[in-house]
Amino acid sequence: MAAGDRTQVRLHNGVTKEVFVNEIRPLRRPAVLRGVDLGPCLSRWDAEYLRAAGGTRPVRVHASPSPRMDFIHKNFAYKTLPFDEFIQRTAEEKHSKFFFCENEKYYLRALGNDPRKDVADIRKQFPELAKDVILPEFYEEEQFFSSVFRISSPGIQLWTHYDVMDNMLIQVVGRKRVVLFSPSDVPFLYLNGDKSEVLDIDSPDLKTFPEFSKATWHECVLEAGDVLFIPALWFHNVTSLEFGVAVNVFWRHLPLDAYDRTDTYGNKDPVAAARAMQVLERALKSLAELPPDYQRFYGQRMILTVQRKVLGRNCSEPAGK
Ligand SMILES: O=C(O)CCC(=O)C(=O)O
Ligand SMILES: [Fe+2]
């Protein structure tokens, strides 16, 4: 595939655990799984049912006057609403009660009971709704990390980011466009932590982000009932085309002790990676003690070492681009 190409994420029908484990997961590429048994949520869930079953418990949500949430200029705010009111506002186009404007958008990423200590688990925070969902068990039980309720207004777009665990994104209500980028495209994505600074991927500012045009788009439109497999480290940018309800399940793909124990979101870099990045920061501070020509010389030598020892080793991509 050439730089900047666009490709459709492969669609698989009626996938069993065996097929997923033996044929799909090892490719480390995203895949849409259609026809997985997700339980009665598919026929039951709509705004009215969710409001009645979810009740008035408070939820912390993103409220945004613009559909494209911008983590750089923080054009959204965290607000607390009763769940039923949040559902009502999220499902309607114009609001009589609002924080910013009558057509503001909302996004819920459910959290654990104590977000600093607990991971999100739909079975604990929303047991009345969780009973309607069969979470596909395509991993071993001990690999389970979290199950996250995600509810979105029509049109809202979540910035491009990566998570550190394998993800099964179960789309229950509404269509959703997902654009994914391979971990090997990281040089083209202008990262700020786990997020890409290229917020408008459809008309990017190529003066500021010239390399972005080299990134390959892996695209799909999820229908209600689809499950998107997002392998760990794959970037994803998500636009809800309609009122959307999804549950995503993070699964630990690496040995369990590789992950940061304080991570409740599934987005802290694995312990060894975080340590390596810290050591790099220290190395750069040390280099800064030298005159510029020495900094460049030793900087080049460091790059060559990484190229030879990390990138030269065949650890780039297991399959295709
Ligand atoms: O579908 C969404 O709302 C966001 C999905 C996402 O970022 C995730 O599941 O990690
Ligand atoms: Fe994500």
UniProtKB/TrEMBL annotation:
Query: Could you tell me the superkingdom of the organism this chain comes from?
Result: Eukaryota
Known function: tRNA hydroxylase that acts as a component of the wybutosine biosynthesis pathway. Wybutosine is a hyper modified guanosine with a tricyclic base found at the 3'-position adjacent to the anticodon of eukaryotic phenylalanine tRNA. Catalyzes the hydroxylation of 7-(a-amino-a-carboxypropyl)wyosine (yW-72) into undermodified hydroxywybutosine (OHyW*). OHyW* being further transformed into hydroxywybutosine (OHyW) by LCMT2/TYW4. OHyW is a derivative of wybutosine found in higher eukaryotes.
Report the enzyme's class at the first EC level. Answer: oxidoreductase
Subunit structure comment from the entry: Homodimer.
Q: Family assignment?
A: Belongs to the TYW5 family.
Cofactor entry: Fe(2+)
* SUPFAM superfamilies on file: Clavaminate synthase-like
Q: What protein name is recorded for this chain?
A: tRNA wybutosine-synthesizing protein 5
